[in-house]
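Q: Given only this backbone (256 positions), what sequence would you predict?
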């Protein structure tokens, strides 16, 4: 049987989601908990691969087992094993052909910035030392909705088979006073893509890049032409959508 794990985590102490030699990761912590509870080596598959220091208020992973599970109790037991900076929200049975990564239809990230020095924001938002023109950045962000090739915003030498992505939402939103967040939704994201997009939009916001120049960055398909990547600590994966099929299946499980 296949099960989905819905979880959240503070990525501060991890070298990203994915298992990697000699470094702690969120996936490694989940694999350890699953293996202890199921009595054998178990590997989960995540919906995406967040970078070092990046957080998730919603992540989904799947694992397979032949054992029948009490999902509520299993989630409780997982929470007893994983560190306090990882929280298992729920465990749900799903059809075997549903894949945490490949079945996802969209993902949403938020990136937070602020301008006034604030000791309580510094861990989860990036302080800017200038006042950005958010209207200008929102006007240029519309270009992303008509863009397909995001090579200019992708980490060099990534292992992606294609750099084609379809962005459906990209907007700066004021949260509280000088605290703003950039919201972006797409069917998929490349490595470092959101941080590179934000860094390049901030060049627009500080008057160093025009809309035409932003468009040229995209057309050049060259990471060196875009702005610098912003720090990962202010980035959150906040939503993963699997469409009506998964929603209906989980609703049926709840009703039964």
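A: Predicted residues:
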């Amino acid at each position: 049987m296949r099960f989905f794990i819905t979880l959240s985590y503070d990525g501060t102490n991890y070298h990203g989601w994915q298992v990697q030699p000699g470094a702690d990761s969120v996936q490694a912590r989940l694999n350890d908990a699953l293996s202890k509870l199921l009595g054998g080596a178990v590997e989960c598959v995540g919906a995406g691969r967040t970078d070092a220091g990046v957080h998730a208020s919603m992540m989904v992973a799947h694992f397979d087992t032949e054992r029948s599970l009490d999902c509520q109790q299993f989630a409780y037991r997982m929470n007893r094993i994983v560190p306090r900076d990882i929280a298992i929200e729920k465990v749900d049975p799903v059809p075997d052909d549903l894949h945490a990564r490949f079945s996802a239809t969209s993902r949403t990230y938020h990136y937070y910035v602020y301008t006034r020095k604030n000791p309580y924001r510094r861990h989860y938002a990036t302080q800017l030392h200038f006042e950005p023109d958010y209207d200008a950045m929102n006007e240029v962000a519309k270009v992303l909705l008509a863009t397909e090739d995001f090579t200019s915003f992708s980490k060099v030498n990534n292992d992606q088979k294609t750099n084609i992505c379809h962005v459906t939402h990209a907007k700066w939103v004021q949260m509280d006073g000088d605290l703003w967040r950039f919201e972006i939704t797409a069917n998929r994201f490349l490595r470092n893509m959101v941080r590179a997009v934000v860094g390049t939009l901030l060049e627009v916001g500080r008057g160093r890049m025009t809309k035409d120049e932003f468009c040229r960055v995209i057309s050049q398909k060259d990471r060196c032409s875009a702005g610098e990547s912003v720090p990962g600590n202010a980035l959150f994966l906040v939503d993963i959508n699997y469409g009506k099929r998964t929603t209906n299946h989980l609703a049926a499980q709840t009703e039964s």
